[in-house]
């Protein structure tokens, strides 16, 4: 599984950038290497700053392939979205991506992940 070649399909200034739809590329594709969705793990990491990487979901235990990166503290996401990482370098890149945001979230231009790692498929059962 890789996000290489996928686009950030939602960019909301002063809130989040959202991507991870490796199925359809537009935010409509839902699935993961664990099946259609998977449960919330924990809510230990809080959305207290810009650069928090968190799961996008449609409600409790509906995590899949899509993720968001916060552009500012977003405490209203706490206990609703599982945060699992933090951008530690390159926050200026997030700011540049945010420049392509619009109020309705549709990017003003394509922003594509050109290079990233690959998570190997694992057998979880």
Automatic annotation (TrEMBL):
Reaction catalyzed: [protein]-peptidylproline (omega=180) = [protein]-peptidylproline (omega=0)
PPIase cyclophilin-type domain span: 1-118
UniProt KW keywords: Isomerase, Rotamase
A matching Pfam family: Pro_isomerase
Gene Ontology MF terms in the entry: cyclosporin A binding; peptidyl-prolyl cis-trans isomerase activity
Any one GO cellular component localisation term in the record: cytoplasm
Superkingdom, natural source: Eukaryota
EC number(s) given by UniProt: 5.2.1.8
First-tier enzyme category under EC: isomerase
GO biological process, alphabetically ordered: protein folding
Coiled coil ranges: none
InterPro entries noted in UniProt: Cyclophilin-like_dom_sf (IPR029000), Cyclophilin-type_PPIase (IPR024936), Cyclophilin-type_PPIase_dom (IPR002130)
Primary role: PPIases accelerate the folding of proteins. It catalyzes the cis-trans isomerization of proline imidic peptide bonds in oligopeptides.
Family: Belongs to the cyclophilin-type PPIase family.
The protein's name: Peptidyl-prolyl cis-trans isomerase
Organism annotation: Lotharella oceanica
Taxon lineage: Eukaryota, Sar, Rhizaria, Cercozoa, Chlorarachniophyceae
